[in-house]
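Might I ask for a little of your time on a matter of protein folding? Here, with my thanks, is the record as I have it:
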Amino acid sequence: MVTAMPEFGMFAVGSVAAAVVAGLGGGITAQVLVFVIVSVALIAVVRPIANRNAKQRPELRSGVDALRGRQAVVLERVDESGGRIKLNGETWSARALDSGRIFEPGDKVDVAEIEGATAVVI
């Protein structure tokens, strides 16, 4: 029922158009013709536009995907072998993406990716 609601709205517009024809003195044949033409024209025009817009849904990231790109604060020194950060209110183990980089406590870092329970930071 919910998926057919837009089509029912278009049929309603076709019915109003047919009612206008009836009010102007048109016969039953003219009313049916106007109803069919208006309803089919609306469905032919509106449905492709609606389908195109339905495919362009906003990207919703959740779980660890939502943590990528977030900023975190270093709690314990972070280098290529490990360390600790505060990310999204939680303490995470972390390691530096670049092997030569070292982040000291208090530094702000960006999360490049999550590997298991370890945040890879830059």
In short: The chain has a mean pLDDT of 90. The beta strands are 71-79, 82-87, 90-96, 108-115, 118-121. The helical segments are 5-23, 28-54. Residues 28-54 form the longest helix (27 residues).
